Amino acid sequence: MRQVTLKAEKREKTGKETAKKLRKMGYIPAVLYGKALEPQSFAVSYSEFEKIYNRFKGEAVIYTLEFADGEGQRRQAVLKEFQRHPVSDRFIHLDFQAIEEGETLELEVPIEFVGKPVGVTKGGILEIMIHELTVECLPKDIPDKIVVDISSLDIGDSLHVRDVKVASNIKIKDHPEETIATVVAEEEEAPAAETTTS
Amino acid sequence: MLLQPKKTKYRKSQKGRVRGIATKGNSLSFGDYGLKVLEAGHLTSQQIEAGRVAIVRTARKGVKIWIRVFPDKPITKRPAETRMGKGKGPVEGYVAVIKPGRVIYEISGVPAEVAKEALRLAASKLPFKCKIISREEL
């Protein structure tokens, strides 16, 4: 689990006009919330956040938010959710959840698939349904990723949430019957040539 | 087979205008690579099929394709050399209303270079500027 520091600037004003101005100035509006915490609006530098996000993509990261408002307040948090612009795919808003010592938190952890399924070598197609699992654990136990071995999957076989083995201090919140990955036989695609227009 | 509704409540629809950006269907949901549209307009069933065929021909074996749009809007056209009036013309085909940001195709099961080439060729069949998105880059 990675720990990174991110500079945060408190903001008093909220609303879309302020948010738009912030984005123009190179910031991302963000919010920090937690169990025993009043939701706090702030902004982070776009370039700084993007650099961190791209560097530690696919890993669980704990952010230490450093508020630059004189008091020098520091707060540990996880990135709970982010919003991207539908067209440009730029970040437009970030949600951070504060970490409370001794309290469990729920977050999404990426799944890493290892091995080549037997079914794929026989001509099947690997279909991945879920790329992330929702887990509940203590902040110190947050896994970087959940490694799943799919090499034994034959054509028609599926891997479900119940089949995933994780450490005893981590609880998977997804439904046990949910399918993570399946190997399906290749469909007979409608041949390319007979696209007719009447 | 061209995509079109099995049955419709009303035979013809008004033209309408395409405003705003896609608030739904704007991210990858199934595949590893996708084609995102950057402009607004209508996409006909023929264009959707042409793009699909381009992907199938390029990616060949092992590709899984998801078409994320469906042409459900009837488009009418007056027959050639007809005088004005005498009511609205017959239905000529169906289109999907596309807003900027909409993902049209998603694919998986092929290497990155093949997937990108297939989507590039599919994009050239569409009447919009497009960009290729992938799960690794987002």
Task: Please characterize this protein's 3D structure.
The complex is a heterodimer of chains A (198) and B (138). Chain A has helices at residues 16-24, 46-55, 118-121; strands spanning 2-10, 27-34, 37-45, 61-67, 74-84, 91-98, 105-114, 125-128, 132-137, 146-149, 158-160, 171-172, 179-184. By secondary structure, chain A is mainly beta. In chain A, the strands form three sheets. Chain A has a six-stranded mixed beta barrel. In chain A, a hairpin with a 6-residue loop joins strand 4 and strand 5 (74-84). Chain B starts with 32 loop residues before the first strand and ends with a strand. Chain B has a four-stranded antiparallel β-sheet with strand order 3-6-1-7, with helices on one face. The model of chain B has no long low-confidence stretch (mean pLDDT 94). By secondary structure, chain B is an alpha+beta fold. Chain B is built from two helices and seven strands. The A-B interface holds A 57, 84-87, 89, 120, 123, 125-128, 131, 186, 189-190, 192, 195, 197 and B 1-2, 21-23, 26-27, 36, 38, 46, 49-50, 53, 56-57, 61-64, 100-101, 108-109, 133, 135-136, 138.
